[in-house]
Each structure stands twice: as C-alpha cells, then as structure tokens.
Design a protein that fits this description.
five-stranded mixed beta sheet; 384 residues; seven-stranded mixed beta sheet; binds pyridoxal-5'-phosphate; single chain
C-alpha cells in the first residue's frame, strides 16, 4: 500500500488522463447527454443518467474514489457540507423509533441536529460519557456516534472500546474524523463502519470551500447516496475541483500543522497567564494515552483557558496572525471563543457541564512559521 502522501496525489485519478491533462478538468455541466438507449426506445435504461445532483459526474466520481482511498474504505461520497454528510448519513440509516447513543460533546450543529431535528422524526439520542455509553444502549439503539477529537476540549475516545461496543450490540458505528484527518487517524482500521468529515476543514485546507464526505462499505455508501439524491445536498463540480486540489497537499499540510501545534501547545502550557492547555499530544491531557495509542500525529487543534476569563476579548483582538473566525484546518491560523461561537447555542449550564468556560479559547494552527505564531501569542498575552 502506498503512503498517504502519494495516495493524496495519485489515488483515484482518471485513467487514462483526460486529454493528457495532468490535473482533473472541471466538468461544469449540470446534465449529460443520455446514452442509455435510443431516444425513441421506451425500454431505455435510465439508470445510466448522469446528472450533478446524482453525484455521478466525472468530478464527483474521481473525488469519491480519492476520498475512499485516503480513508481506506471501499467507497466514498462527497457532499455539499459537513452537515450534509452528518444529516444525510443519519437520515439514510435511521428510522422512526430508532435510538442513537453519542459521545457527550459533539460539534454544536451535530448535537442540535441529533437532539432537536431527529426528535421530530421519532429518532431519539442520548449523549453520554465514554464509560457510560453502554448504559444508554437499548433494544432500539441502532447507531453509535463519536468524534475522533472532540470540539473544543480535544478529547479522544478509546476507539477500540467504542467499536467493540458497537459489535457487541449490533450497532452501526459512525465517527466524525474532521479534526484528526486520515493523515493522523484512519477510523475504519479500528472497526468503525463509517467515517465522515467536514471537508471544509483540513481536507480542503484553504478556507474557500464548504464540503463534506462520508466513507465506508459500498453497501452503506450506496444507501447514503440514495438519500443524498433526495435531500439534494450535492457539491457543485467547481467546488469538487477545489476540494480535489486541496486534497493533494493534505499530508504535507497536516504533518507541518502537527509539528507546529505540539511546539505551541508546550509553549502555552508553560505560560504564567494560562491555566490549562487542551492538546492531545500533551502528557498532561486526559486523552494523551488514547491519542498516543491510535494517532500517527496529534493534529493542529488546541484550546486553552486564560487564568483571567475577562481578558479573552482583549487577547483575541490583540493577536495579529490568527484571524478571529470560526472554522479550522486552513492555511491561516484561526481563533475563536467557543462559548460565544460553536457552543453559543448551549445554555450556560450545559456549557459548564461540558467544561466549556468563558475563558476558553480555541486555536486552529495554520501554516505560518511556528516561531512567528509563538511570538504573536506571547505579545497578545503580554497585553492582558
Ligand atoms: N463536524 C465538525 C467536527 C465540525 O467542526 C463542523 C464544522 O465546524 C462540521 C462537522 C460541519 O461542517 P460544515 O460546516 O462543513 O457543514
């Protein structure tokens, strides 16, 4: 098997190259000439229809294959956003009366989708600490859902224990691998049935596309694609092409972000104005053991608590390099206060229970030089 850096470039590419083109051309066509039979043939085979919403144009097909190879799955499906990947997967595999058991803290929109939207269709969900997941599994539980690195506390579950639980109870196991990326972790290799992403983040890597994907067995992906075709959350061919380009540099970007983030996390953890740094690569982090066991690298995401929570606004506005913006995984470092952004929809009580205080800051390390980022963080800390 080739290294992931080679797969990111050559995996799934069109063979032979289209007109010899080194890069995949953009097929900016919504529809394609019908070639399933003669126009006057009433028995014509409409299965051969090619249409952008069906996710079967040349740009979709190449991308689906590359994504599957990167996550080492049988089949892949690119979608219009990370939330399209989450919602389409859930709606394809769950029915009225089914139950989901999920990790305690998930990305905010995923959490409210599971809690509020799915409830309207008679699908219930329990969120539980890792050690308590089994207690919440009942006769109607159909799916177990986790994130490879939770947002914003960077917790890493014991994936082997989660998939063992899924096998024991016959559940479909789904993981959001956005934060870790397939460079640092490949969930299907530890027994997850499906791995999904907000491809808006590291997979694309340039903060210029909203996209998502899901990878797993052909049987499950076909089911999800059938639902995707009805929900309509497809990705436009031009956006497919941008994501395709971003994927080629995935491995170099993530490796550099891994190297930079560990140095920055160590530096911040020694700073007098910082209470605690949450980074899975730090021995002080509760998830260090799991991260070391399962990950090839610890990722580019971290969060930290200022000793003075009242200084968060001043600190963020004094930074010169990280941009104050939601999202993550791009070439430019981004910073947010989770209590006011990704987790603003939770009640203060829910946030407190989840360990998300007002003094918590989340940092996505970009590709700026590590020393420049450290210098910038230090100057902002000096001013609070
Ligand atoms: N999953 C995770 C872990 C995320 O952080 C996000 C967005 O921030 C999503 C899913 C949703 O992705 P998108 O914004 O591409 O719909």
């Amino acid at each position: 098997m080739k290294d992931i850096s080679t797969t990111a470039i050559h995996g799934g590419e069109a063979e032979p190259r289209i007109e010899g083109s080194v890069t995949m051309p953009v097929f900016q066509s919504a529809t394609y000439e019908f070639r399933g039979g003669a126009a006057n043939d009433s028995e014509a085979n409409y299965i051969d229809i090619k249409y952008s919403r069906l996710n079967n144009t040349p740009n979709h097909l190449v991308l689906n294959k590359k994504l599957a190879l990167l996550e080492q799955g049988e089949a892949g499906l690119v979608l219009g956003s990370g939330m399209a990947a989450v919602s389409t997967t859930a709606l394809a595999l769950l029915s009225n009366g089914d139950h989901v058991v999920a990790q305690k803290t998930l990305y905010g929109a995923t959490m409210s989708f599971f809690k509020k939207d799915l409830a309207r269709f008679g699908i219930s969900c329990d969120f539980a600490d890792e050690g308590d997941l089994e207690k919440h599994i009942g006769n109607n539980t159909k799916m177990i859902y986790a994130e490879s690195i939770s947002n914003p506390l960077m917790e890493v579950p014991d994936f082997g224990a989660v998939t063992a639980l899924a096998k024991k109870h016959g559940l479909i196991s789904v993981i959001d691998n956005t934060f870790a990326t397939p460079v640092n972790f490949r969930p299907l290799s530890v027994g997850f049935d499906l791995t999904l992403h907000s491809a808006t983040k590291y997979l694309n890597g340039h903060s210029d596309v909203i996209a998502g994907c899901v990878v797993g067995s052909k049987k499950l992906i076909d089911k999800i694609n059938n639902m995707a075709v009805h929900l309509g959350g497809t990705l436009d061919p031009h956006a497919c092409s941008l994501l395709h380009r971003g994927l080629k540099t995935l491995s170099v970007r993530v490796e550099r972000q891994n190297q930079s983030a560990i140095k920055i996390a160590e530096h911040l953890s020694r700073h007098a104005k910082i209470k605690a740094v949450k980074y899975p690569g730090l021995e002080s982090h509760a998830s260090f053991k799991n991260a070391k066991k399962y990950f090839y690298g610890f990722g580019g995401m971290m969060s930290f608590d200022l000793k003075n929570p009242g200084a968060v606004g001043k600190f963020i506005s004094t930074l010169k390099l990280p941009i104050h913006a939601p999202s993550l995984g791009g070439v430019e470092s981004l910073v947010i206060q989770p209590a006011r952004s990704s987790h603003a929809s939770l009640t203060p009580g829910e946030r407190q229970k989840s360990g998300i205080g007002d003094g918590l800051i989340r940092l996505s390390i970009g590709l700026e030089h590590t020393d420049d980022l450290i210098q910038d963080l230090d100057q902002a800390l000096a001013q609070i």
